[in-house]
Design a protein that fits this description.
By secondary structure, this protein is an alpha+beta fold. It folds into two domains: 139 residues, no CATH class; 175 residues, no CATH class. The chain is built from twelve helices and nine strands. The strands form three sheets. It has a five-stranded antiparallel beta sheet with strand order 1-2-5-4-3. Helix 3 packs across helix 5, helix 6 crosses helix 9 and helix 8 crosses helix 10. The longest helix is centred in the middle third of the chain and has 19 residues.
Amino acid sequence: MTGKLFWCPPPGVLPPAPVPNRLAANQWRPLAKLEVEMAVAVGAGISGDLNLRVHDGRLLLSIKGALVWGAGVKGYLTFEVGYESIVALTKLVRQEMAANQYKDLEWVETEALAYVKKLSFLGATGIDVAFAYVRGYAIVKEIFDALTQGDRGGQIAHTLVFDKNQQEIQEWVYNLQPQALGPLLMALSSPPASFSVEEEQENRTFTEDDAHQLQQRAIEQCLRWISTKPNAAKQFEDSIICMNRDGVRPAQAGSIYCKNKLKLDTFMAERVKALDSISNRTRERYREHVAKLGARLNPHCEYSTTYKGPAFAPIQDTRAAYKGPNID
């Protein structure tokens, strides 16, 4: 037995104007392909009305039969999520996580959440999420790993700053899970390097300073986009804590927050293109965003200067320590 599940995304999940890989808002679309055999194989042990999981590299959505209009069955139906609605579904997950203070959702299993996180990261960097999803989990992970390995900050920043679909990228970043925004900030604050891109059928080269300026602009832009939200501070704090390749929240979160914020501040304090008004304004706005978004934890970070190496040529180092309440 096979079939399709159609859904009409809730208001706010899709924008009013069409964008690549999306149908117009408020239209019914195929969400997933039903495979009853798959439901029998993996549907056991599901509790609640919904369950999103990964099986053999595919996202599977199990829904209580009573919720599926026209199903007329008891128990659960399991569907393979289709590429037509993967963008809207990932956005729905991001919105639900934002409403839940970025805590894990009970109906989304750990591996599925990691998959959605990687897809969301790709969307924020301008990659066609539907196309990547069709290629499979292994390809999505390969792209994600390549972008977070530490040498693509300039290219990512170029997309964030100059991509023609700015509204679409802003939508990805706005509710981006800390497990994805953290790796994005980490990638953007990686050591800058020269790179080349094709613009209007011409090859354009960016120097190391150009890359550093672009990465600073992209970081400030991301923080500006999220700063308008009521719960932006929570998103910012958790994202700073999750500034690692895997986007995980490590133990001693307070200490990690102070150390990662120091790394970001140091990167943003570098006065590249000091005579450029855009660069100076970017760094000024960044300091304003961090003061606002980090108002709860910033006062608990203490920094001290130490010196390493021989006395005739000491190397200055700054250490960060957290002196606040436990936030693990």
